[in-house]
Amino acid sequence: MAQLRVARSLGISYKRWLGWQPTPDDPIEWDEYERDWMMALDTYERAHKCPVCGMDISFCHDRHAVRAAFSGAAVETCFVSEMREKAMASFQESGIVEAPNSQTTKLNPR
Questions:
Q1: How far is CA 81 from each of CA 5, 78, 107, rounded to the nearest angstrom?
Q2: DSSP character for 26?
Q3: What number of CA atoms fall less than 13 Å from residue 32's CA on the CB side?
Q4: What is the largest CA-CA distance in the chain?
Q5: What Cα–Cα distance (Å) separates residue 23 from each residue in 26, 28, 29, 108?
C-alpha cells in the first residue's frame, strides 16, 4: 500500500512506479486496472484512515494501543498554517467577510 501512496503523491500510476514505459502494445498509463488500484486505495483510506490524525482507526481509536506506543505529544507549529491564520485574521478585521466558513487562503510566492 505504501508504494501506491507514493505513486499517487508523484502523480503517476502504480505500473509506472514499478518501471512501466509506454510501448505500442501498452501506450496507456492510466488504464482501467490502474484506475481501479487508486479507487481501491481511496476506498480503503476512507474506511480505515482517521480524518483527524491520518492514522489507521484500528490503532488511533484504541486508547490502550496509543498509550502503549506513545508517552505523550509535543506541540509543534506549522508555519504555513500560521501564515494562513494571520492572513485570515487580517481579512476578518477588514470587516468585509460575508461568508467566514467559506473563505480560504492562498500562499503568495516570493
A1: 24, 5, 10
A2: S
A3: 0
A4: 61
A5: 5, 9, 10, 41
- Cell numbers at residue 35, please? 484506475
What is the spatial distance between Cα 10 and Cα 19, in angstroms, rounded to a whole number? 14
Cell of 89: 485574521
Encoded amino acid at 79, one letter: F
- Alpha-carbon Rg for the chain, nearest whole angstrom, is 21
Query: For residue range 82-108, what is the model confidence (pLDDT) as tens digits?
Result: 999 999 899 888 888 787 778 888 999
Which residue, chain included where needed, has cell 509543534?
A: 76
In whole angstroms, what separates CA 102 from the centre of its chain? 20
Grid cell of 57 as nine digits:
482507526
Task: Provide the residue type at 66 as one letter.
Answer: V
